[in-house]
């Protein structure tokens, strides 16, 4: 298979889990394709991020982007395609803790990725989810 060199992502799932500390966390799953296989950050560049997430909370019946103390940014491991076809496809799962939010918030996320050439993917929107009482 061959894909465009600009990464493309597709939303798959947003699941809520209760962890051992009895606080909730979310697992976001999305799939990606990339035609030249330059996805992920090398270990030698610990500051680089590949996945960028914006949180939206429902306030007074309207969704607003949340202002967070730290951005929701994540790494994808350095991926190297084998063979002559450099196209890559796969799934990414990200654990998101949201204990900073108010209880019983209705939330969703918007997500995009960047490849090593700094090409930005399309932006996906997750389903909404209701956080539980802390």
Quick description:
The chain has 134 residues and is mostly beta strands.
Keywords for this structure?
45% strand, 9 strands, 0% helix, 134 residues, 6-stranded antiparallel sheet, mainly beta, 3-stranded antiparallel sheet
Question: How would you describe this protein?
Answer:
It is a single chain. The chain is mostly beta strands. 0% of the residues lie in helices and 45% in strands. The chain has no helices and 9 strands. It has strands at residues 8-18, 24-34, 51-59, 62-65, 72-74, 88-97, 106-113, 124-125, 129-130. Strands 3, 4, 5, 7, 8 and 9 form a 6-stranded antiparallel β-sheet that branches. It has a 3-stranded antiparallel β-sheet with strand order 1-2-6, with no helix packed on it. It is elongated. The mean pLDDT is 87.
Question: Number of DSSP strands?
Answer: 9
Quote the average pLDDT. Answer: 87
What would the principal axes of the Cα set say about the shape? elongated
Please summarize the sheet with the most strands: 6 strands, antiparallel
Show unreliable segments. Answer: none
End-to-end C-alpha gap: 46 Å
* Backbone structural class: mainly beta
**Number of separate helices:** 0
Helix and strand topology:
Blueprint: E1 8-18, E2 24-34, E3 51-59, E4 62-65, E5 72-74, E6 88-97, E7 106-113, E8 124-125, E9 129-130
Antiparallel strand pairs: 1-2, 2-6, 3-4, 3-5, 3-7, 7-8, 7-9
């Amino acid at each position: 298979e061959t894909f465009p060199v600009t990464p493309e992502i597709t939303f798959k799932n947003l699941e809520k889990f209760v962890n051992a500390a009895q606080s909730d966390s979310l697992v976001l799953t999305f799939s990606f394709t990339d035609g030249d296989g330059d996805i992920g950050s090398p270990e030698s560049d610990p500051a680089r991020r590949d996945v960028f997430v914006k949180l939206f909370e429902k306030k007074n019946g309207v969704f607003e982007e949340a202002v967070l103390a730290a951005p929701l940014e994540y790494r994808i491991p350095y991926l190297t395609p084998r063979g002559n076809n450099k196209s890559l496809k796969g799934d990414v799962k990200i654990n998101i803790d949201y204990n900073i939010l108010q209880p019983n918030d209705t939330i969703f996320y918007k997500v995009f990725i960047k490849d090593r050439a700094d090409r930005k993917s399309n932006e996906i929107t997750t389903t909404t989810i209701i956080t539980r009482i802390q």
